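Session log. Operator J.P. requested a structure for one protein chain; no other inputs attached. Running the standard single-chain path with token output.
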Amino acid sequence: MSIEVNRFVQEHPKSQHEATRLKNSLLAGVPMPWMKRWAGPFPIIAERARGGTIVDIDDHEYVDFCLGDTGSMTGHANAPISHAISTQAQRGFTTMLPSTDIAWVADHLSERFGMDKWQFCLSATDANRFSLRIARQLTGKPKIVVNDWCYHGTVDETLVILDEDGKTVSRPGAIGPQVQPGLTTIAVPYNDLAAMEQALAGGEVACVLMEPALTNIGIVLPQSGYLEGVRQLTRKYGVILILDETHTICAGPQGASRLWGIDADMLVIGKTIGGGIPVAAYGMSADISRRVENLMHGHDLDVSGIGGTLSGSALAGAAIRATLTYALRQEDFDIAIPLATRWSEGVQAAITHHELPWTVQQLGCRAEYWFADHPQNGAQAAATVNDGLESYMHLYALNRGILLTPFHNMALMTPFHTEEDVDLHTSVFTQCLEEIMS
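Structure written below.
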């Protein structure tokens, strides 16, 4: 590890200088906590990004397989999106009034995802939080269900896991939870229908909030019949099903739920649809939207706990419209998904050659490798984490021009990536394994 750290330091003098300076004014020297997770003793400082690449201030170019953890899944500085944002900047960012762009977006989202009506906000965290409020209001029930080791942004009720006694507790690292999580939330293992029914049968659950496939603990795919079973159980017990497609949009232009034929009552889609601008949207079925509209009146509407003055702004409308028009289309996934398959096959070939008990998982244009067999739930996924090995492999890749998502061993593809980019990763990954195994 020391060899790779020394190489990193020697090759990034400007980033080191800037990172040191930033400690004077930024907590931990970064503008956002998870940026501390990047491999290396300090973060590299980005200078510019375009397509599937990033260039740092030391003039190193990287193949970017992180893509802002889906925030730039459209590709960095995508020209039509950038043009739309620039044009809208000359016409005004925010007015607290509807725009024709946002009307077009709502119609398009309904057609794409099958939801009846939509609302907008600044992040999937907000969209999830607002959806939970709506579910509790409509059902009159106090609790929610999420999957063990899930991640739905910084929503208090969802930062939970199951402890060794099967009790819902705060997730390690959660700062200052407002209440004991068991008061608001029941965590259930992913792919466990019996546990789901047990949670719902008590009659106190307003909604189930879940990803169609787990992603933020690594890709954990649903077993045959699991999602269909969850849908049946939520209907049986009168529970609202909210699907968070913020990351699983990687499965295709309509997300994983429509690809797999799962009808949600509400659906959340986040940062990806903004092309890099902070946006999110949450949609709802005709029945839910009718009931919610009955709540949207009266003097106190502005203090309902839902909304925000910058939500659904003119800038957001322009950015989302351009993104959905010029990116995240079937033709884009037709390029990106085969690249993810090529990435997976290259990694698996190296793993097989060295007879390692590792595996590779793919969901659409997202793929990653595990230091174990494919996990079936979040706890199994968490148990595979090897911080030391992961940090070494990420730094090894970074020193050779490749950025992977710092939270786990995930790579995301855009239509701007090439087979040569993928093959570079395969070569570096193979070389890294050879050095580890030597």
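Operator note: Residues 79-326 form a domain with the Aspartate Aminotransferase; domain 2 fold (CATH 3.40.640.10).
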